[in-house]
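User: Predict the structure for this protein chain, please.
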Amino acid sequence: MHIIDGKKIAKEIEGRVKTKARRKKIKIATLVYEKNEESMLFSKLKERAFERVGFEYETIYFDKLDETKLRKKIKKLNDDDDEITGINIQLPMPGIDYNKIIKEINVKKDIEGMHPFNIGSTLLGDEKLIPCTPKAILRIIEYEGIKLEGKNVVIINHSNIVGKPLAMLLLNRNATVAVCHVYTKNLKEYTKRADLLITATGVRGLIKDEHVKEGVIIIDAGIKKEGGRIYGDVDESAARMAKAITPVPGGVGPVTIASMLENALLAYEMQKSL
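Assistant: Here is the predicted structure, written as structure tokens:
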């Protein structure tokens, strides 16, 4: 079994971004709800990543969430073309309709790739600002030399942030894609056929040996914290049957942040028409 090294992949992406970003004034604004411990942790990880590649950044904290205030702040960041070149919203933001608030971000500053315009462009094969986790999974697939054309791919996640855009990206590469979720009946019927299984449910040990065939490639984007440790969706019994698998942690996570850095550089270039 081959363990896919997400940290190594992320480091290579960061190296390319740092080289291309040299002498460019890229500044990212991150909106964070400061009363959520996980949000604060991820925002710090982003800050360190921005520093590594030489980006400037501003982290904007909200102790209370109000959609009107968020909209006003986003408008101000959109209008600040001299300073801010990228905007991202750190989830969760309880009580805020993310699908509505993401529409407020300038499409060329949307480094999360979640504005409806950018999602629509991805659907049509015009892949520029792509959602970060799907992009990270795609980068892992490319790095590992995994051929997608004609392969049976099963995604266990149908969210707007991961499963749906990922399915579009894989279909753009002529994979045969099945998308499963909490309402899927007899999950094993789908997963046993998978050449490539991608799971992102946050259910510890969901995927066991009975769900997979020998030699499957597994990308585990699930995260579950228990007892001070982080676990993925894949049980050890399933991992032993895999030809290759991403670990949790150290797999998809680092590449997701690196993919945001790629998007931030691309956003800058789009704004400057480079």
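The first strand starts at residue 2 and ends at 3.
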